[in-house]
Known about the structure:
Layout: H1 11-17, E1 41-48, E2 52-59, E3 73-74, E4 80-81, E5 89-92, E6 96-103, E7 107-110, E8 114-115, E9 121-124, E10 134-139, E11 214-216, E12 226-228, H2 242-252, E13 260-262, E14 283-287, H3 299-314, H4 316-319, E15 321-326, E16 329-332, E17 339-340, H5 349-352, E18 363-367
Antiparallel strand pairs: 1-2, 1-5, 3-4, 5-9, 6-7, 6-8, 6-10, 11-12, 13-14, 14-18, 15-16, 15-18, 16-17
Amino acid sequence: MRRHLVKTLGAAALAAAAMTATATPAAAAPYCADGSKVSWARVQIFADANCRGGSMIVKSDDANGDRPNFASFRNYDGRVYNVDNSRSSVAIAAGQCIRVFDGRDYTGEESNILCAGSGTAYYGFFAFDNRVSSMRVCAANRQDHCNRNGGAGSPPPPPPSQPPPPPPGPEPQPEPEPQPEPEPQPEPGPPAGEEFPAAFSNGPVDAPVWRPQVRKHDSIKCGLRSIPVGLPPQSVSRGFTSRANTLVARIKGPDFRFTNIGGGADGTETGHISGSFHYCGRGIDAFAPGVRSGTRAAGAGLRASWRLANWAAHNAARLNVAEVIFYDKIWSASKGGWRPYKHSASTSAASARNNTLQHRDHVHISIF
């Protein structure tokens, strides 16, 4: 018998335990916080339990939501990630279903089908925790499409009843001259108001790899000396380069309202590691409102800081961001994702507890 995929809480757990592997378990509404799923997602799968950690998204307008190989998962932005055997929970949009498999190409052990009714449904993977390798996505009224074979061989839905023939109409008119096809339009991004998904405030959200083509400049003496082709080296004005000052203005503006911004160049090379981005005005240290230097961000300050950190990483290409560091995590354009971070000066247990060195009190953003 196949293993159960989902566990729920309280009395619902007893009901779910009694189900067979082919039954549809009840969604555990309290399993994830309201708003964990972005509004434009058809399916959103998370690295951690309770819809936390980085996530991969199948967009609501993605007609084929199937993902046959999580080692090359196509995300909503068209980029490809390796998330094989690394997912722990899922959010499903209303009227949609999924079935996951522990083998690629819909092989191996399969889960029971998971569906959402009139609202978003949240599930934990539990028995399939960190062992999902492929996924079928289907509409709730075509659950056969979530089978291994994607519905191949299933009988088509019955045709609608035939309406009576229409009354005779006017004589047909000549067809109009063919018109040229319209120019293709770029694929839309998240809808207006979704530049800051709710998940951005809850912790690190997987961000894409950028890896721009770069050129080395001997005139750059600190930070990364190789910057994207087409970007000129910049001098310092008011502590930062022009590109950094543009981002500082955005961080201070109504989207974030971070007024405590530090890290600007002052003509010296002290206070940071050798060759730091800060010495040439390309390193920004942003403290959320209410967060004091040396004190771990918490509550609203922690959420605001993660919101900024995720936004900067997800928009690195247009902001010219090279790396983002916050709360023991680092994202870099060359590698993508969020990885564990340890400051080079954290050589002892005491220094590893230093909230400033480990960037637990501020968001650091390095600019190309």
